[in-house]
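Good morning,

Attaching, inline, the backbone tokens for the sequence recovery test we're adding to the shared suite. The designed sequence is right after.
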């Protein structure tokens, strides 16, 4: 939610009007299938893939390839990562807090979840997993300890669980690199894809251990408190300006056609639950 306020116009569409694209971007769909599989099991993700309509041989082939990809990613993750005692998808729902005074907000609450959580001695560890096209580079690694999403997870899980978090295990899961060859059937390619994930674990699965700097967590909490005041001001005065420097990020903003005034209302729907992945949902005030 806070990340979207980089562009107030996007924030307005997503969090005030609650508009979402009906068709989910492919990159987001694959990421969701992976995360749901980590939480609910491989069979759940395969069942989600099989819900898609098959109107042609192309659709059937794509479904088979998606099944192979998700199978390879999930089985590979089980082999690559040691998660025997991990609590999957720990959630929180609580007011935001001014870290300097301890005062809780009466208007803003935060809801979310991490990918994993476990106790280690007198402290806790959280796990964050991201699917990615390509191996993580120096630019990705160098900013992990400043990742706003992770700082937000650390802040809120520390408060809700009452246990300080000392480490974050940050993981990248690389999407498939290999392609089907001309002389290969779809079935042969799928078998090769699943095997590739198992035989090249170091290529597809990357893990980084980040020590939590509590001073950065406190700074994030101050930033969050200030941003909440900015959002309140924008709501009061209806100030939802466009930040066009953000239009091309993450493969392009979902709301760009609306900002350009295109006749695309049929591509969007208004949701009643802002984040269906959460069992507890923050109310909009």
């Amino acid at each position: 939610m806070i990340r979207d306020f980089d562009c107030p116009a996007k924030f307005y569409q997503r969090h005030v009007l609650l508009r979402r694209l009906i068709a989910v971007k492919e990159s987001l769909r694959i990421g969701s299938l992976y995360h749901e599989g980590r939480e609910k099991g491989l069979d759940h993700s395969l069942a989600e893939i099989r819900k898609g309509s098959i109107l042609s041989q192309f659709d059937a082939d794509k479904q088979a390839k998606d099944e192979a990809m998700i199978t390879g990613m999930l089985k590979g993750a089980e082999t690559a990562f040691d998660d025997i005692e991990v609590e999957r998808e720990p959630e929180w729902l609580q007011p935001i807090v001014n870290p300097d005074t301890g005062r809780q907000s009466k208007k803003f609450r935060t809801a979310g979840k991490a990918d994993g959580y476990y106790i280690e001695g007198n402290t806790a560890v959280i796990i964050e997993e991201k699917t990615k096209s390509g191996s993580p580079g120096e630019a990705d690694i160098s900013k992990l300890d400043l990742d706003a999403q992770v700082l937000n997870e650390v802040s809120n899980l520390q408060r809700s669980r009452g246990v300080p978090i000392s480490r974050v295990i940050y993981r990248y899961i690389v999407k498939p690199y290999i392609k089907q060859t001309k002389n290969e059937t779809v079935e042969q390619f799928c078998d090769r894809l699943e095997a590739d994930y198992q035989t090249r674990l170091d290529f597809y699965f990357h893990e980084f251990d980040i020590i939590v700097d509590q001073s950065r967590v406190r700074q994030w909490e101050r930033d969050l408190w200030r941003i909440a005041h900015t959002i309140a001001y924008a709501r009061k005065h209806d100030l939802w300006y466009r930040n066009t420097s953000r239009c091309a990020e993450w493969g392009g903003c979902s709301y760009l056609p609306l900002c350009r005034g295109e006749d695309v209302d049929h591509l969007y729907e208004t949701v009643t639950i802002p984040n269906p992945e959460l069992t507890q949902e923050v109310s909009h005030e």
